[in-house]
Amino acid sequence: MKALFIGHTYIDVTMLTDVIPTGDAKDVAKDYAVSFGGNAVTAGFACAKLGHEVELICSLADDWLGHMFRDMAKRYQIGLHPRAVKRSSLSFIMPHNGKRAILRARDADYLEPAAQLDLSNCKALHLDGHMEETALDYAKLCRAQGILTSLDGGGLRGNTHELLQFIDIAVVAERLCEQMNLSDEAMLAYLKSRGCKIGAVTQGERGMLWYDEAGTISRLPALSVPANLIIDTSGAGDVFHGAYLAASLSNPSGRWSEHFQFARAASAHKIQHLGNEAGLPSQADIKTILALYAHH
Q1: By CB count within 10 A, which of 1, 29, 130, 195 is most buried?
Q2: Which run of H or of E encompasses 270?
Q3: How many CB atoms lie within 10 A of CB 97?
Q4: Helices (H), 174-215
Q5: What phi, psi does 69 have (nearest 5°)?
Q6: Rounded CA gap, 128 and 134, in Å?
Q7: Cα(17)–Cα(96) distance, rounded to whole angstroms?
Q8: What is the largest CA-CA distance in the chain?
Q9: Which helix (DSSP H) or strand (DSSP E) does residue 268 occupy?
Q10: 100-146 pLDDT, tens per residue?
């Protein structure tokens, strides 16, 4: 196991449509995709597609959607450590004009504790805040063993404040800033105060505000993908997380500015494809994006 990801599993059904019917109305979508979903789960798949050995602690039900997810993980040679739930979780995603509406159905009533894994071959841990106690336990274990820890801070959870003291790379969403009533700059100061070596606030099409190893704050602008090529922005952040971890695993001594530039290219690839699986970039895809947008 080179990288361990912990999160909640979804099956995503993404529908490309201009109309969302109500009442008795019917309509036909222009296109659709069915894929794995969930923040850390999607990040794990992205890291695996980029050539790394990935294991995943995630929710899994013994139902048809659960069987589909097992098949997906097997295809990417991801080692699964399932935590049983009764029913699979489902997301309906409707991308439109660079935004995306999401309707979820979730079962987070775990029927068993999470697996306790041997971390002797682990080089990185990525969390999305789900399975709060498990996330905290593994963050503590990894910190004690000198294993890189990363957090997708998409929103405020019960133990976010405590968890952050065991996180090396904290990349959070503007939603967390809003929930904590902090400006983006104040959020970076907060992440520094919690001891995060690298901290960032993602800002969608405006890019990312972050501080580096020296604590220097700068902006990483988003790549200027033409609007007519943007199909589905859902999952772009998750692919970003998986890609910066992949870059870090490939070059542990590299600078985080380089890891984030690699991840930015991965996100730019994702938004041009419908659904998470179709949007996972290969190393070659990222080279293509970097060449196309070399002036950034």
Answers
A1: 130
A2: helix 256-270
A3: 9
A4: 174-179, 184-193
A5: -65, -40
A6: 11
A7: 8
A8: 58
A9: helix 256-270
A10: 889 999 999 999 999 999 999 999 999 999 999 999 999 999 999 99
The residue with tokens 């309509």 is 27
In whole angstroms, how far apart are CA 66 and each of 80, 130, 139?
12, 18, 27
User: Which residues lie closer than 8 Å to 282 by C-beta, 6 or more apart?
Assistant: 49, 50
Taking all residues of the chain, what is their mean pLDDT, rounded to a whole number? Answer: 95
- Closest Cα to residue 81, out of 132, 133, 5? 5
238-269 residue pLDDT tens: 999 999 999 999 999 999 999 999 999 999 99
Order of all β-strands in the sheet with 169-173:
79-85, 54-61, 3-7, 124-127, 148-153, 169-173, 198-202, 208-211, 217-220
The string of DSSP letters for 134-153 reads HHHHHHHHHHHTT-EEEEEE
- b/e sequence 61-88, b meaning 16+ C-beta within 10 Å: beeebbeebeebbeebebbbbbbebeeb
Six-digit token string for 85: 């739930």
10 Å Cβ neighbour count for 247?
23
- DSSP labels for 37-76? E-HHHHHHHHHHHTT--EEEEEEEESSHHHHHHHHHHHHT
* Whether residue 296 has pLDDT greater than 60: no
Would you call 100 helix, strand, or coil by DSSP? strand
Closest CA to 16 of 88, 101, 104: 101
**What is the value of pTM for the model shown?**
0.96
Beta-bridge partner residues of 152? 171
Which tens digit of pLDDT belongs to each residue from 6-51?
A: 999 999 999 999 888 899 999 999 999 999 999 999 999 999 999 9
